[in-house]
Amino acid sequence: MRPIAEYTIVEASPVAATLRAAADLQTDNSLMWLPSNQANPRGGAGVGYFQAHNRSSATVNVGLGFRLANSAWVAGQWTQSSGVFTDDTIDAQDAGVGDFALETTTNNDGFIVAARQPFNAISFDCSTAGLTGAPVVDFAYSNLAGTGWTTLAHTNFFDAPETLWALGIQEIVWVPPTDWGKVTALSTIPVGYYAIRVRKTTAQTGIAALATVMEVWRVLFLTEGLADNTSLTLDLTPSELYVQDVSGAAPYLTSVTALQSRVTALIRER
After folding, report:
1. Residue with the larger pLDDT of the pair 135 and 43
2. What angle do CA 190, 40, 70 make, to 5 degrees?
């Protein structure tokens, strides 16, 4: 059995619902665990234990999020007319105000995020809201062959993409599909990356939304409908779950009204 001394016991009482507050993106603020070298993580993290105790006075969705290192993902714009992915990773990862386009006013345009491993959450700070019209969202992932797109069913979302992006923190959280394939030949998206595409098949007719900064996450133990004043406990020892390319961890809770909920985990650097 793996000794408990190999793990760090971490605990957090989240003060912001879901994963991150807008001001915390691309900082280490409010993370419950960090690797020894945040700028160049050793590799990943192993999880031996997880508990979420809900005291938010509401039913919540919960999980344990691991932020992917910036070196492990890319992001940029999708232009439907040319079928081209334009890499804009620098703008997605820095704090320049309103320099990452989430969409246009043209049908079927949007943005793409791709990572070296499957992921299931994106957090970003929307600095210019999408306005007017009745847009229709399509969220798709690279298919098993890595040569095309498959639309994700709405039932797979814990937090679905907004039809009109609003100001402030926005998050998309989903259950990774079992037939998600690495890109082999798909536009100019890097080969070997798992890709998602978020576009408006019917675009808004006014202002197109912009984001300031973005983070990409792998959320483990996603659980829907944890009742108030109850706990979810998962003891994985002597085994553990492993996530690679990790630069920090944070709890995922969809309500923290009473500010008394608690998340506890055993995490070790690997």
Report:
1. 135
2. 40
**Per-residue pLDDT reduced to its tens digit, 209-246:** 999 999 999 999 999 999 999 999 999 988 899 999 99
Per residue in 53-70, pLDDT tens? Answer: 999 989 999 999 999 999
Give the separation between CA 225 and CA 19, rounded to whole angstroms: 17
Give the type of residue at 89: T
Residues in the chain: 270
**Residue 252 and residue 172 in contact, taking contact as beta carbons nearer than 8 Å:** no
For residue 245, what are the contacts with CB-CB under 8 A and spacing of at least 6?
Answer: 41, 43, 44, 68, 69, 71, 72, 115, 116, 117
Residue type, 42: R
Smallest CA-to-CA distance from 103 within 121, 129, 84 is with 129
The residues with which 75 forms a beta bridge, in sequence order, are 113
